[in-house]
Prior knowledge:
This protein is α+β, with helices and mostly antiparallel strands. The protein has one domain. It is built from ten helices and eleven strands.
Amino acid sequence: MKRLLVVLVLCSLTGPTLLAQGRQRSTGRPATPPAPVTPPVVTLFGDPLPGLTAANRTLFNEGRNEFAEPENVDDGLGPVFNGRSCSECHGIPVLGGGSQRTVTRIGTLLNGAYDPLTRLGGSLLQDRAIGPNDGSPHRFRPEVVPPAATLVVRRRSTPLFGLGLVDATPDSTFIALAQQQAARNDGTAGRVAMVDNIRAGMPTVGKFGWKAQVPTLFQFSGDAYLNEMGITNPDFPNENCPSGNCAELQFNPRPGLNDGGEDVQSLLDFMSMLAAPPRGTINAEVTAGESVFNRIGCNSCHVQTLQTGANPNPALSRVTYQPYSDFLLHDMGALGDGIVQGSATGGEIRTAPLWGLRVMQQSYLHDGRARTLEAAIAGHDGQGRASRERFDTLNAVDRNRLLTFLRSL
Length: 409
């Protein structure tokens, strides 16, 4: 009896397996294995774009090294400058991010028109200078705000994450966005900034800078090399005259062209292949907060999704991304800083992308004046006023949901 029970138990355990094997033999086909599950690509702040070739990853790493390397007089630093390396202004939370550093823009109104005070060095102040400690026999003086300046504003250094995707987005996308917003006729329509594109030899759509005054990342790189570090390059070959005193350039220890374009290209390689900022946790509270964000009209300017065009780099080709910006100029009323750049008026500011907002170090708006998200929203004026007023009327639950959503970006 015990032997019979053991046999029955063994049969019950092996029967289904044997039956399955029998069915497999009868069909003559092996069982189809389950399809492998490909895990989503997870990027961290400062990572390269997913999907780069080995060659492009090498270019990215070389560009990152150039981005972090301090420049000196032998490299062409100065005579006046704002930083010795790109990382001084773009290092939080990692290389390629933003910082608490701000730069100073100046100007005045002359007969009602904006004057950038070019004769006194221009609207961007360079607050550092080379001297004997740097190996320069002449001590240059940092620029200071001249008495003629009636407009003195600060500009915050912004993160560079994901800007290669913006650069790879066709101009037609931004033109179409402006047309769609105009058709809504709700008072929030943005305007395309058409600015000088040095390489194209014609105006194209401005996408970068607080005033959308720069059309491409390549031009952005050359501009930053000259105006932030004092390093001349093919697109920006003329040295800045310290405080407008061009005669002082006779003491410049490196009067020739400082960079033949190789370093500018390296900066471009790093920035163009720098991944978009990763998103924080998305839960029911965050999703509900985004619904509030849309309901009060924030998405009129902070557009969630854009797509790149065809691109020779597969990692940049037809990629959908979520910057929460239309990259258009909007009249921000009292929030405008009065500085005219490119085609932007004193009251216009490009919509700031909100991706990466959670690592902004409590420094918001163009001048960093807002220390909380609530203060940043309260600062909106002009075409942003209606959304600000709707935010003011939100109940506590919806207000917290909205802030939770913003902190997830």
